[in-house]
Design goal:
The structure is a homotetramer of 458-residue chains.
Chain A: H1 3-6, H2 18-21, H3 24-29, E1 56-60, E2 63-71, H4 76-85, H5 95-105, H6 117-127, E3 132-138, E4 141-146, E5 155-159, E6 177-181, H7 185-188, E7 192-197, E8 202-206, E9 211-216, E10 227-228, H8 229-235, E11 241-242, E12 245-246, H9 247-261, E13 268-271, H10 277-287, E14 295-297, H11 310-314, H12 316-320, E15 321-323, E16 332-337, H13 346-355, E17 360-365, H14 396-400, E18 404-407, H15 410-431, E19 443-444, H16 446-449
Parallel strand pairs in A: 10-19, 13-16, 16-17, 17-18
Antiparallel strand pairs in A: 1-2, 2-3, 3-4, 4-8, 5-6, 5-7, 8-9, 11-12, 14-15
Cofactor (chains A, B, C, D): [4Fe-4S] cluster; Mg(2+)
Organism (chains A, B, C, D): Athene cunicularia
Binding site for Mg(2+) (chains A, B, C, D): 275, 337-338
């Protein structure tokens, strides 16, 4: 029990944008130190309140730990009752508090004079299969943990001296420290370079200069891994790297695949700025049609306080975009969208394009329709809100006012995602590298197919 | 386990002034309901952070409880280790979390199908002697608990129909509900009238229309009660009632007692606005000297951003007060102060009065010097900062620039406080009323004498 | 034309409390300099908008001037038309802009190579008789001007070295600079001492070390001066000095006079905290009754966001005050108030005192009833809102629930104000001092009597 | 003089973003009315202070006027002295106040019983040649005025019923009102359609339903018009229309022209998101090279409070962009930029691309180098800051780290801008339409060539 060093944790939390929560004042109050955990979360399980904000910090008999959790436990209700039955009062509705108390609680404690945190982490992983990527800070160590299914992303970056940020590779330059993040895109902006992913089930111990695999907890025999396919489709920034491939490249392949599955006779290919641009460029190139901009973003759009009357409600879309009508007047337009979830944003855009002179408007969606809820950390509208579950879906083109609308198939998406992974894995297998420990590759497509990677407990 | 009703707790916390934390928005979000706990605390044990804000709300196997705590546990360190040894991760440094987890934890829980909250509260009271006044909310019941020594105040008010707010007494008017507070002065402003104190050791169960004593946990044989005497001297609002007497009356008696102990030949009696006015009026009346105002408050004083230079540092007092020099020019002035803690505020006031024409300035302090730290909830400067522990104290008049300075004696203070309590108690004893359960009356004078009501644990 | 030095004016304005408008940031942006004008005004003529905020700064052919104005011009409408007829576009509704443009405009300008600011100021004073106290800043000079009737206050203070702030008198200590203010009470808090008033009609030129009378513009033959009597009654801080006397002393004399005019058989004298305390002490002393506190202020009252229902509207007063009921239970109470304007604040206080046990409640008001509007800078409720103009006034005691209510007479007020002025003036006249230039002493009692010091123009 | 209706102007101003200045509160306070002027200005002449904010509102003998001004007067100093010589005190340093006072002042006023606002506007236009686009509001009329050189843009839009927003053209649908703006791109978002430009020198009178040309003030014989060419290059939103053409189309033509003037052997064409995209697509199409994205925007970048150390200063660019390295690794890249002003933003981008694997990086700039200050309303860095005036410019490719860098020629820019205007004008001239009143078409290229459209006065 080292009260003093454990007291050294300094916590700052807040709700809202990072730049508001972490301003000059609050940053000054945080210690200048070598070690830290940050967390942003759009709370999925648990109410959106400050108390649910991470990291969770608790003092245990063996010092303070701070825990940051990305994901959502599929057996949270059972774990909750188990802890309360042992007499632990739970102060939040967050499943991340369960993880923290399970780490503090793990018996037997009476004879436990030296804290074995790896044993505690493995016990935790035996209690709950998915989904969680965790950072656990204790004294001068951070443990980075990914659940055995690898449902949520987690990767490691290497801080390198500024002078050496020249892509010479890790062998040539000194390491200044390590960073861990859900998305690799964050590394560049803090002067780090992508090092590697934490593997499904892996427990990594990170200290000032060292990254060390402590263990890899396996999945049940035969279960494939289950990384969330929606990270590729929608959530991740295009420059992020998952499973060895750039998200942008996957999205462009989705566009190419879509061109194969659903070609259309048209004059130009475009997109709604700006997330579907890679798919649109892929589609255009595969079809041999020109890629043309039809809308420009209104950069300074913000909250509007003007009284909402009939006129202005209809103008919602026109507030967000400018129309480059000269670019498509009298032409047949294919619009590539990354996903149609509720169906109420694409409809006024189609109307706007037609009013500005488009001759035909065809919609191609670079992902399959979402039909099922996610219980593993992604906030998806209710089943009733999803357009794919509603009667209008049977005549969707008519409902949204398009000349035609086609979604990418599940198979098309999965193959676009797995194509280069499998190629590389075959290659690696032939080399019998350590990476083969990942086991059978799969992806969680639960929101598209209803097939969840583990049984859900209630 | 009644998940639904326990979910009905709605919590809003914040740091800062009540009017900032509870604004129109936050109040709207709180349920319109019949039951609630509020809490403001200048944190004494535990860091001043949002997480330490009360009430503490935890979910237990038998539903949610919310706990508000006024006071400070004298054996917090031992309780802390005990809980952690049982595997409870503690998320704050607050002793109020210990109380909450002890209520959730109390064994045996395995066979505990029906929660016996009174037994849990009594167990808690056996674990820790003082100091705590507690409100514990569970479903539609609030338990009001005061520690056996009665160190912190707690009293009950009765909401009465507005039309009946005419002092006719409780028998004649309908009761609309109950309120519990540390200070009775808060009742008037919400339309309630003072009903009675919670007695030392008493566990009171409060529901919509009913107030019921469940038990009175006794002190160890022979120990007197130990209500904080500093509430009378300094903290409480003058219109508050403790132990059956108005604080204002106690302060006036202190002034009268001070006139007996330390008379002075002078022309007028005055005070530093505005907390010592009752003592000053009592002193003036007892001495037969006129009560005259010498300073007026500068109502709009606030933070000043002007660069602090030599001139302005010396002007600090002049910023807070205006001088009514015509009222005392050429006169001998007695200034009554309620306490001199550090000695650095009275000194520039004396200087200001002299510069404005006072012939003599005598200081009379209506309480004894503070010499010892408080470990029961009051935030007192460190021993080194207390003027009474410093060498200057031996020639205090000279140090602060007064012609003379005399403090009230501890005996004088205690007798001013206990005079009417004892008179009433004798009267009540002769009537053999229920109130005799209070036991031997005493007061905590630890900060003045170093005699703490219980042994301190570290 | 000295563009460079005139550019050196640095202006910062804002609406709201001084501490919000002048924060660390805005003060840093103001030049560190030897010369400045500040202004706070509760706008009476002209809408309450930032543009109307003073000082008004304009560039003229002879450099920039900044003008701060306290008062309200009685012939603003005529001056407004006159300026617009000359082709000046007026950007605010404030009469202070008229003063500024009249100073810029004064013809003949074509041949005016050297700016004669004193001539311009005298021209301005010939255009408008009252009411204005002005500070006019040009380059390194400030002109302090008071209208010939002296309706608004203006006085000069002397900054003295801190070490010398010991009341030795102005001859013994060095002068560090000069300050000008409406109220002398502000001097103490910035380390200055009261020097003298600006006389009615006086034009004073103030530079770094020098204060010099340039001229005294006389009133029409026979007109007495007309300083606002309401400054004594209500507006000024009690430690301010006007016409050689402390406001506190005038108020105490009003209380004494009220005791002579309207005695009452009672047990104690008290007041509503805190503005009427001097009058209450004067009344109590004259009557030989004890002065006792019956209410204490609730220090932290602020905006309340609680939904206003029947109960809470009735509790308004109870939110502002605590009741010291033990001090007056069963007693006959005289409450001294400084003024009753609308009559809706004293009424619930009387009710509260009765409900808390007062046997009788008598109200004595230390000023006469207000019946007429002010057109010279004081914001007074409309004639219809003034209780003295409403039918309820005929049975006021009954209307507000008091046992009796009596106002001070106009003659009583005037004599309380002028008593010591006249005594001193006789003394000075016999010494033939310079002060005799003030002429016949009078006071503006327009709001009480309807007799305005000058004819009003529309 | 109609005081009442002129009082109906309601003004709200503030500094900062529109959404902060015009929030729900401030909008509620503005009258619901049929007429209004809004203005946003990045102040170029006159200090950036609230007082300089537009519209300027003044009361004149003939009622209130409100004036909004876009532009900067080339003879402001002379006009300033002229007004002050007439006795007008000027309260701001803004040239827009000069315009307002000149409109109020215009003699002869003594006999001027009916205000002839058109005469006043024409007088103003005779006093100052350029640059100004004005909106002048008086009672229920708005006058829209553009200076004879047409230096600043101004155009009129037509509010049409929502149901009719279908591009059927103005003849078929009812007009609901008129709007005037600098840029037509704002029309769509408020439900208006582009109607026409205000011509150089034109005075347009706009009432509820009517748009009427009152006069067109001519330029001196032989002077061509001088619309700011930088609006095309940089300032305007791409969907805006000037002189009958969409800005996006001009920018794409600039890219095409650049491909003709400065081709390069490369593998792909890209851009720095996102203003140069039209030029990049034009360049790519003309060259026959693929258009590929190399950077993605970091959407949530904001102020960063992290202590600026060596590492982080070098990371500035990496904070704004993500690198899509897989898209260009080992390739020769052409980056199209819209302008290089100071040269310090492109340099780290080139470094970033090289470090991420680009084989060659060629820069092509779709506008000529800026070399001269603008005195007509555009805020341009000082001559010393402009890269084109510094020695490094002689070896610019080396300085910024590019393999090559070429700017578009002035002739290339002018022809890209004028190509379709001239084609249309020839066509119109042959039809002898009213539009021929515009006279000889030219553009202000002063910042590129130093040739100002009028002589500059000091």
């Amino acid at each position: 029990f080292d009260g003093e060093s454990s007291q050294a944790f300094k916590v700052h939390k807040g709700m809202g944008l990072i730049n508001h929560v972490f301003n000059a004042d609050s940053l000054k109050k945080l210690y200048v130190s070598n070690l830290g955990i940050g967390h942003t979360r759009y709370s999925t399980s648990g109410i959106s309140e400050l108390q649910n904000c991470q990291p969770f910090v608790v003092e245990t008999l063996h010092g303070k730990i701070a825990v940051a959790h990305n994901g959502e436990l599929t057996n949270a209700v059972r774990l909750r009752r188990k802890l309360m039955r042992h007499g632990v009062g739970l102060s939040t509705s967050s499943d991340s508090e369960l993880i923290t108390q399970l780490l503090a609680f793990t018996p037997p404690l009476e004879n436990d004079d030296t804290a074995d945190w790896v044993a505690r982490i493995k016990n935790l992983m035996n209690e709950t299969p998915t989904s969680y990527s965790l950072l656990i800070m204790h004294k001068d160590i951070i443990y980075a943990v990914r659940d055995p299914y690898g449902n949520r992303p987690l990767c490691i970056g290497r801080l390198i001296p500024v002078g050496d940020m020249n892509g010479k590779g890790k062998d040539n330059s000194e390491t200044e420290g390590w960073v861990v993040s859900s998305e690799s895109c964050s590394f560049l902006s803090i002067g780090a370079e992508y090092y590697r992913e934490v593997l499904p089930g892996e427990i990594v111990k990170i200290s000032r200069y060292d990254v060390q695999t402590l263990d890899v907890v396996p999945r049940p025999e035969g279960d494939p891994s289950a990384f969330c396919i929606f990270e590729y489709v929608y959530f991740a920034r295009p420059d992020s790297i998952f499973e060895g491939q750039m998200v942008y490249s996957v999205r462009r392949r989705c566009g190419q695949q879509l061109a194969i599955e659903a070609p259309v006779e048209a004059d130009l290919v475009s997109t709604v700025p700006e997330s579907a641009t890679p798919a649109a460029l892929g589609y255009a190139q595969k079809c041999g049609l020109p890629y043309v901009e039809v809308l420009c973003k209104n950069r300074y759009v913000g909250r509007t306080f003007i009284q909402p009357n009939m006129r202005l409600r209809q103008l919602g879309v026109a507030k967000k975009f400018g129309v480059l009508s000269d670019n498509f007047k009298g032409k047949r337009v294919v619009i590539i969208d990354d996903s149609i979830v509720r169906g109420n944003t694409i409809s006024p855009i189609i109307k706007l394009l037609r009013e500005s002179g488009a001759k035909e408007v065809h919609i191609r969606v670079a992902s399959p329709p979402i039909r099922f809820p996610c219980y593993m950390g992604i906030n998806i509208p209710t089943k009733e809100e999803l357009i794919a579950n509603r009667p209008e879906f049977h005549d969707l083109a008519n409902y949204i006012g398009a000349d035609s609308v086609v979604y990418l198939s599940v198979e098309g998406l999965v193959s676009s995602v797995q194509e280069s992974i499998k190629a590389r894995q075959e290659n690696e297998n032939s080399l019998k590298t350590q990476k083969s420990r990942v086991g059978k590759i799969g992806h969680c497509t639960a929101c598209l197919t209803g097939e969840y990677p583990v049984e859900l407990e209630w």
